[in-house]
Write a structure and sequence with these properties.
The complex is a heterodimer.
Chain A lengths: L3 E4 L2 E5 L4 E7 L6 E7 L5 E8 L4 E4 L2 E6 L4 E6 L8 E8 L7 E3 L3 E6 L1
Parallel strand pairs in A: 2-11
Antiparallel strand pairs in A: 1-3, 3-8, 4-5, 4-9, 6-7, 7-8, 9-10, 9-11
Chain B lengths: L3 E4 L2 E4 L5 E7 L4 E9 L5 E8 L5 E2 L8 E7 L2 E6 L8 E9 L6 E3 L3 E5 L1
Parallel strand pairs in B: 2-11
Antiparallel strand pairs in B: 1-3, 3-8, 4-5, 4-9, 5-6, 7-8, 9-10, 9-11
The chains are: A mainly beta, B mainly beta.
């Protein structure tokens, strides 16, 4: 059973476009929701972390929202750039010790110049 | 700050041999480290949670006798893949949690293991 699902699996957009990546989770027991970026063959870079008591977080051109009741989170990227091309992963934090993260499959984003 | 390194970055080994992967927190102390595995085009799957000075906690379906984890200090955890087989070929990523901080995990760059 896939607890965290990301749609779409892949996305290609022209440079400058605003875009939304979706993440849904099946279990409402959530302590936080994190978004990561992964470049090919590399580790993860943390982008945004939303605590369960929060509704959104912003960093630069990125905005992430969390709706616990519907089990969804979105990552909004404004004015996309070719350098944003990467795989974006969301992960649900299942405990308050900052431990277990359940990852989605990721969305592979390609921003064309 | 909060940099995590892994060594080696890639390794090729023959079937039946053992491989050790190191995970280090370079500029902070990590009471807890996590080991993940990622197959191509798939997401990260948590393998085990490693706490300094105690035995690791393994996720369901992960063989603890095959994937030996040692967390001997606040800055180093090791994962040893024993008697590796081709199906163990994967991308192994560790993460470390700052001592005293509940939520942030900092991820290493990963180790690509290929078993021939």
């Amino acid at each position: 059973k896939q607890e965290v699902t990301q749609i779409p699996a892949a996305l290609s957009v022209p440079e400058g476009e605003n875009l939304v990546l979706n993440c849904s989770f099946t279990d409402s027991a959530i302590y936080n929701l994190q978004w990561f970026r992964q470049d090919p063959g590399k580790g993860l870079t943390s982008l945004l972390l939303i605590q369960s008591s929060q509704r959104e977080q912003t960093s630069g051109r990125l905005n992430a929202s969390l709706d616990k009741s519907s089990g969804r989170s979105t990552l909004y990227i404004a004015a996309s750039q070719p350098g944003d091309s990467a795989t974006y992963l969301c992960a649900k934090g299942e405990d308050n010790q900052g431990g277990k993260l359940i990852f989605g499959q990721g969305t592979e984003l390609s921003v064309k110049p | 700050g909060a940099v995590v390194s892994q060594h080696p970055s890639w390794v090729i080994c023959k079937s039946g041999t053992s491989v050790k992967i190191e995970c280090r927190s370079l500029d902070f102390q990590a009471t807890t480290m996590f080991w993940y595995r990622q197959f191509p085009k798939q997401s990260l799957m948590l393998m085990a949670t490693s706490n300094e000075g105690s035995k690791a906690t393994y996720e369901q379906g992960v063989e603890k006798d095959k994937f030996l984890i040692n967390h001997a200090s606040l800055t180093l955890s090791t994962l040893t893949v024993t008697s590796a087989h081709p199906e163990d070929s994967s991308f192994y990523i560790c993460s470390a949690r700052l001592a005293g901080y509940s939520y942030e995990q900092y991820f290493g760059p990963g180790t690509r293991l290929t078993v021939t």
